[in-house]
Amino acid sequence: MTMLYSIPAGAAGITGRIRRLAESEGRVPDAGFLSDQLMEVFGLLFTPWDKEEEVLAVPAEEDSIPAPAEEAEVEAAAAEARQGNAPETATLTGGQAGAVTMLLQALEEDGAAAPAATRLQEEMTRYFVEENPIVRKPGGIVAGLYLAAGNEGLLAGTPLTAKEAAKRFGVSEATAQKYAGVLASRLGK
After folding, report:
1. Which 8-state DSSP code applies to residue 89?
2. Does residue 123 contact residue 145 with C-beta atoms inside 8 Å?
3. Residue 70: count of CB within 10 angstroms of its CB
4. pLDDT confidence band for 143 (50 / 70 / 90)
């Protein structure tokens, strides 16, 4: 595989991630696979990872595109969310569930009050169920929610700036602001 594209020897982790993605689909990581799975490979290349960590989760194809059987579940959860009931996280894709987990960890680290943490988790889950976005950078959504929640006064302390939120969650300021705009209207309800 390193003969197809120039991947430095020090980046063996990336090569391993691409190989595991191919194996998870029962394919060989050759030029045909790379061309068919170009977006997933780019997602792996641009996903931050710990160089010391050997085993990394590889996003499965079903994480980004719901299967027809899952669409009924997602629609049922969306209807439930529109009625005001808290949707179950079982209907979330892997990336979406990762964003919820990242949010909960950040709120726990900050010592957020239980009612605020619960509301933010429910709003994020409703957003995922209703909109079903493909989550490639969970940190962007979490940073945006932190910005929106701080501006709405839902989090104790001084609200984070876009630069601080972006740095904390490993995304650009533009990404944090984009999701803050999307999620602010949901928190203002």
Report:
1. G
2. yes
3. 14
4. very high
Place of tokens 């590889």: 58
Burial pattern 78-103, b for ≥16 Cβ within 10 A else e, equals bebbeeeeebebebbbbbbbbbbebb
b/e 110-121 (16+ beta carbons within 10 angstroms → b): eebeeebbeebb
Burial class (CB in 10 A: 0-12, 13-18, 19+), 2: exposed
Torsion, Cα 175 176 177 178, to 10 degrees, reads 50
Where do the H-state alpha helices sit in the chain? Answer: 12-24, 31-36, 38-45, 61-64, 68-82, 94-110, 114-131, 138-151, 162-169, 173-187
- Closest of 7, 17, 12 to residue 41, by C-alpha: 17
Q: How far apart are CA 90 and CA 26, in angstroms?
A: 26
Cut 0.85: pTM above it: no
Through-space distance between the first and last CA atoms of the chain, rounded to whole angstroms: 51
User: Quick one: residue 78, left, alpha or beta (phi over 0 = left, psi -120 to 50 = alpha)?
Assistant: alpha
Query: Hunting for tokens 């009924």 — which residue is that?
Result: 72
pLDDT digits (tens, 9 = 90+) for 25-48: 888 878 787 778 877 777 777 766
Q: How far apart are CA 68 and CA 65, in angstroms?
A: 9
